[in-house]
Amino acid sequence: MRIFLSLILILSCTTISAQRINQVPDTLRKPEASDKTARIVQNDGQNVVTAEDVVKDHLVKIALRNPAFTIDDANIRIAELNRKRAGASWLSSINLGGNVNEFVIKNSPAASFYPKYNAGLTVPLDIFSRVKNEKGVADQNIIIAKATKEQRERQIKAETLTRYETFKEKSDLVALQNVVLANNLSDYQLAQKNFEDGSITIEALNSIYQNYMGEKNKMVTYKKDLNISVVQLEEILGMPLEKAAPGLLVK
């Protein structure tokens, strides 16, 4: 009997403790676990890389092989060489001269009364300021050359992505128009059978046929726009689109 009463007492205390734990206000609970999970989900969402992103990055890398960057790299190299030349320009501004007394050469007794050797050094007064200015100009030319290359990189990247988006738009329009055209063709074929059965008039058949031809005309325009977008994208890539990204162009 005592054992039974003891078990009842233990179960009662456990239930009360559990209720007290459940009654703890939300403001006092530690949100560390939930916050950590939320941060992980948020970070995962920010780091998601889609197949579209991979294609865009690939096309941009190809476009950045543009021959114009060869010119930019050459201009940077020229600016750096000019900077080195400006740093050593003070050497060309200093003149060092000297001569030997002619009486010394002739071994004349008069050589004792004249300087046997003459030496001179000419240093321009503006040498330090002039060299400093030349270095400053050379430094600015390096900055300009590098900035020009960076600006061209941004322009080519933006132009590549813009042309790619245009290509995707035209490609999607052609794909959608294919569906519309297939439906219109099906309607026209069905209308032909209905006309043969006498269930529709010639006017109704002609109306369905005109709708079908109108969609075919749209397809011609959409395909033209798609071909132009391909040409423009290949221009900036410097190679056929099929070679740059096989399977991207669906024929």
Shape: rod-shaped
Side-by-side strand order of the widest sheet: 1-2
The average pLDDT value, as a whole number, equals 76
Structural class by helix and strand composition? mainly alpha
Strand content: under 5%
| Helix and strand element order | HHHHEHEHHH
**Helix residue percentage:** over 70%
Q: Provide the low-confidence segments as ranges.
A: 1-44
- Could you describe the largest sheet, including whether it forms a barrel? 2 strands, antiparallel
- Distance between the amino and carboxyl termini: 88 Å
- What value does the Rg take, in angstroms? 43 Å
Strand elements, count: 2
Count up the helices: 8
In words, what does this structure look like?
- The chain has helices spanning 2-22, 32-46, 51-63, 68-87, 102-105, 127-197, 202-237, 241-244, and strands at residues 95-100, 117-122.
- The protein is mostly helical and 251 residues long.
- The protein has a two-stranded antiparallel ribbon with strand order 1-2.
- It is rod-shaped, with a radius of gyration of 43 Å.
- Residues 1-44 have low confidence and may be disordered.
Output the keywords.
251 residues; rod-shaped; 73% helix; mainly alpha; disordered N terminus; two-stranded antiparallel sheet
Task: Summarize it.
The protein is mostly helical. 73% of the residues lie in helices and 5% in strands. The protein has a two-stranded antiparallel sheet.
